Automatic annotation (TrEMBL):
Annotated protein name in UniProt: SnoaL-like domain-containing protein
Signal sequence interval, chain numbering: none
Domain SnoaL-like: 12-124
SUPFAM superfamilies found in the cross-reference section: NTF2-like (SSF54427)
Pfam families hit by this protein: SnoaL_2
Domain of life: Bacteria
Amino acid sequence: MATREQENIQLIREYLKALESAATGENLARFFTTDAVQVELPNRLNPQGGRSDLATLLRRAELVPNLLRSQNYAIVSELAAGEHVAVEATWSATLATGFGSVAAGTEMRAHFAMFFRIENGRIQSQRNYDCFEPWT
């Protein structure tokens, strides 16, 4: 029988796989509590950072296929304690649309530290510390 920590880590692995496949709607919402919140700390791509509720997360997910041809989360390490899960991952994505001086087809890379709080088998909160590799 799996421990709560093992179940929580598995939930996060499945969530990251869903993000890779550009899940939207209920296919993404199923990972979250209805009062879920995601906090993105300031980074090069989003200098002001941000805070999103579930409705905002779902709206933003609808944009992904227009922005990215593909994306991948390679888990470097993961740790669970009770209802908390911490994941270090390397993210890579191929742009479908260029921005600024970055052309469509460019591969972007970042190193993410993600901290989750799980409530009743769903993500209640997520905090991201995203460190993007240089792009021109």
